[in-house]
């Protein structure tokens, strides 16, 4: 991207862009710690800057990011969280174009 470029973005998209820019800058100074693709509820909540209870409430209300359930354990794919944050949308089980 050129220095004099104009970028049109929603607040959620801008948050993702800023977060990635900060991570890129910080990676120069800190050892690279790769974020795993599959996150548990606590890791996912930390990644999207929410509380685990908020994720539980969203699941009860059929909103929030897509998740996977194995027995009683809940998992989130990092890529699903990134897409959800970038779109600024909350998918429900009734959303016709939901990615799951």
Task: Describe the structure in your own words.
The mean pLDDT is 81. The protein has helices spanning 11-29, 41-47, 52-60, 78-87, and strands at residues 38-40, 68-70, 73-77. It has 100 residues and is mostly helical. Strand 2 and strand 3 form a beta hairpin. The longest helix is centred in the N-terminal third of the chain and has 19 residues, at 11-29. Strands 1-3-2 form a three-stranded antiparallel beta sheet. The chain is built from four helices and three strands, in the order αβααββα. The radius of gyration is 15 Å and the shape is globular. It has one domain (11-87). The N and C termini lie far apart (32 Å). It is 45% helix and 11% strand. Helix 1 (11-29) crosses helix 4.
Features:
single chain, 100 residues, mainly alpha, three-stranded antiparallel sheet, 11% strand, globular
Per-chain topology:
Elements: H1 11-29, E1 38-40, H2 41-47, H3 52-60, E2 68-70, E3 73-77, H4 78-87
Antiparallel strand pairs: 1-3, 2-3
User: Which stretches are low in confidence, meaning pLDDT under 50 for 5 or more residues running?
Assistant: none
Tell me the number of strands: 3
Largest sheet: 3 strands, antiparallel
How far do the termini sit from each other?
Answer: 32 Å
**Beta fraction:** 5-15%
If helices are DSSP runs of H or I spanning 4 or more residues, what is the number of helices?
4
Main-sheet strand order equals 1-3-2
| H-E string | HEHHEEH
Please give the domain count: 1
Overall outline: globular
Mean pLDDT: 81
Give the helix/strand class: mainly alpha
- Binned, the helix content reads 40-55%
What gyration radius follows from the Cα positions, in whole Å?
15 Å
């Amino acid at each position: 991207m050129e220095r004099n470029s104009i970028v049109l973005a929603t607040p959620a998209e801008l948050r993702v862009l800023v977060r990635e820019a900060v991570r890129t800058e910080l990676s120069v100074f800190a050892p690279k710690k790769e974020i795993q693709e599959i996150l548990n509820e606590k890791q996912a909540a930390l990644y999207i800057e929410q509380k685990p209870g908020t994720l539980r409430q969203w699941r009860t209300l059929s909103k929030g990011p897509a998740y996977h359930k194995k027995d009683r354990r809940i998992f989130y794919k990092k890529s699903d969280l990134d897409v959800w944050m970038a779109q600024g949308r909350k998918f429900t089980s009734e959303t016709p174009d939901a990615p799951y």
